[in-house]
């Protein structure tokens, strides 16, 4: 696989690191969590056989720097960053967009605010908990995470957050130490380094976001809502399933769970290509 072309894009309040591979219609991949562009390393090469694939580190993550490191993070601003990427790499042409988790929230906002720039959106487990009937319970979870972050630090806040996402709210046991290949080890280190920013800024800002459901309904022919096959019963699964039923569209199940992109890259990539062609 050839190395990607890299660049930097100046946006409002930040400088974004981005990578481009392949040829053909643009496919913009928007990362969730704290992994950034590297979270797509397992699939970007195969996707680039069919598309010009663009990945980037969201503002404040990894190589994308903030002018004000203490700035609050808003979905609308992150979606504007994605729009700027489209304007740079696919000017005047609608692009395909895939978003994972918090990146899927960004993709939903991009679709509702700039539908002329988007031909198709695949949103994988966007945790838009405000659409759920029990949204108040999830607001309480985010409040607990924020308080834990302030009083006990980011790693304890991550544990509280992760437990709230599971089926039964069970405590999360730390994984056993394993030796990773160098590239995977570097990605894991990057993910860990970004956790304080993710749990302190992205989680509270993004999980309080309420999408424009009526607007999504009007644009549902361009929207694919997706979930992990193994995510049933977990919190990130429920908003996508709820929205798919409300909008009257199919809920597409991808291999693995919330991080199926990492755990089942080949199968995930194959289904993503099929979904983009549909």
UniProtKB/TrEMBL annotation:
InterPro entries reported in the protein's UniProt record: AB_hydrolase, AB_hydrolase_1, AB_hydrolase_fold
UniProt keyword list: Hydrolase
Pfam annotation, one family: Abhydrolase_1
Ranges where the AB hydrolase-1 domain occurs: 25-135
GO biological process: glycerolipid catabolic process
Molecular function via GO: triacylglycerol lipase activity
Superkingdom, natural source: Bacteria
Name recorded for this polypeptide: Alpha/beta hydrolase
């Amino acid at each position: 696989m050839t190395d990607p072309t890299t660049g930097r894009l100046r946006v409002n309040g930040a400088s974004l690191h981005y990578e481009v591979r392949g040829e053909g219609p643009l496919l913009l991949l928007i990362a969730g969590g704290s992994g950034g562009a590297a979270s797509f390393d397992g699939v970007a090469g195969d996707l680039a056989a069919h598309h010009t694939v663009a990945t980037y580190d969201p503002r404040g993550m990894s190589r994308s720097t903030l002018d004000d490191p203490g700035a609050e993070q808003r979905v609308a601003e992150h979606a504007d960053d994605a729009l700027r990427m489209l304007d740079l790499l696919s000017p005047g042409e609608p692009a395909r967009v895939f978003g994972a988790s918090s990146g899927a929230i960004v993709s939903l906002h991009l679709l509702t605010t700039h539908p002329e720039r988007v031909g198709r959106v695949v949103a994988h487990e966007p945790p838009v908990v405000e659409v759920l009937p029990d949204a108040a319970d999830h607001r309480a979870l985010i409040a607990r995470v924020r308080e834990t972050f302030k009083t006990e630090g980011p790693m304890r806040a991550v544990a509280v957050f992760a437990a709230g996402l599971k089926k039964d709210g069970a405590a999360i046991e730390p994984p056993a130490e394993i030796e990773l290949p160098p590239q995977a080890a570097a990605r894991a280190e990057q993910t860990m380094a970004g956790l304080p920013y993710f749990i302190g800024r992205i989680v509270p800002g993004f999980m309080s976001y309420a999408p424009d459901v009526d607007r999504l309904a009007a644009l549902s022919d361009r929207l694919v809502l997706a979930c992990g096959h193994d995510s049933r019963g977990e919190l990130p699964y429920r908003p996508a399933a709820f929205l798919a039923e409300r909008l009257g569209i199919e809920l597409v199940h991808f291999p693995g769970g919330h991080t199926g992109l990492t755990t089942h890259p080949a199968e995930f990539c194959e289904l993503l290509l099929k979904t983009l062609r549909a």
